[in-house]
Amino acid sequence: MTPSSNPPPTTGSSSKRCVPVCSGIVLSCLLAFTLQIFFFSPISPDLLLLPPASSASLIPTTSDIQSVTRLGEGILNGPEDVCVDRNGVLYTATRDGWIKRLHKNGTWENWKLIGGDTLLGITTTQENEILVCDADKGLLKVTEEGVTVLASHVNGSRINLADDLIAATDGSIYFSVASTKFGLHNWGLDLLEAKPHGKLLKYDPSLNETSILLDSLFFANGVALSKDEDYLVVCETIKFRCLKYWLKGESKEQTEIFVENLPGGPDNIKLAPDGSFWIAILQLSSPGLEFVHTSKATKHLLAAFPKLIKLVAPLHKKAAVVNVAANGIVIRKFEDPNGKVMSFVTSALEFDDHLYLGSLNTNFIGKLPLKAT
């Protein structure tokens, strides 16, 4: 007898056995992807309600910023903030770790090299010293002799993401901590999480002590003193508002809203000579993508792919600054509506009838004449 043999399997039956195997692999990948996004997410998000239209939207939109003179073009790398000392010398801190200054004769000087790419807010003191916030190192004092770290810790914890600052005539220094959870290079995660990780701090040079004035702020950013130094204004970027913190009088140590429903997230704030304030405004939402701020699932997805955050917060597509009166009313607004000349403007300083604009997305400082606008 001839031994019987089994026929070879057909292609069809082999394909049928592959289907469940492939399906299992796909499902496993989807499960791993879901676990990675939702259970190992770097954020624990809250919903963020975008503000309704405010009185600022009624102010005519102009393109004034497109007519700026470009100071230091090509030698400045992302000059985030600007200050002027009592001698009329302009200072800025750049992404390449330098503090550079513009002398009154129009020449630029590489003044002090601090290093890193985390220098942010900059201001002067009554003694004509330069103070700067370093997002990694904390509060720094810079003089001809060198650099001194004034404050790197508060209440035993390291200061993370020191952002902006102002010095009072009594020597006190007030500065913001934007986030105690996220650093400068992933600050967009703080926007997605939409929780209050910010602080307002005070450094007392006579005691060499740092204390917390306000806690639980929503990305604490710009800080400014009123003309009489009776209150501070601190910007909460992701709440589209600024708070007033009283330093003197019957309301001392109390907080109230100074201005809200701004047409974007407030960045740095500067006192103007007339007692009003200049506030740089950041574009934190894209038309058609506003839903992202009210969807936790979408926030988790974006947190897994941080480069996509630029789609939600198109900081590089527009520039805007507003002038807010001492009573909290927006009175002027300047823009580059499509980012043609400047975008991502982070500070606006008024000096000698001009507005000096810092930006993290330019290689120059913008100089805008105010009398012509």
Give a verbal description of the structure:
By secondary structure, this protein is mainly beta. It has a single domain (47-368), classed as TolB, C-terminal domain (Neuraminidase, 6 Propeller), CATH 2.120.10. The protein is built from four helices and 26 strands.
Provide the CATH architecture.
Answer: 6 Propeller
Strand tally is 26
* CATH class wording: Mainly Beta
Counting structural domains, the number is: 1
Strand content: 35-45%
The helix/strand class is: mainly beta
- CATH superfamily annotation: TolB, C-terminal domain
- Radius of gyration based on Cα positions: 25 Å
> Which regions are unreliable across 5 or more consecutive residues at pLDDT < 50?
1-5, 28-33
Determine the mean pLDDT. Answer: 90
Helix content range of the residues, please?
10-25%
Organism: Citrus clementina
GO molecular function, one term: hydrolase activity
GO cellular component, one term: endomembrane system
Main location: other
Question: Summed up, what is this model?
Answer:
With 373 residues, the protein is mainly beta.
Notable characteristics:
single chain; 373 residues; mainly beta; Neuraminidase; four-stranded antiparallel beta sheet; 4 helices; 13% helix; disordered N terminus; glycoprotein
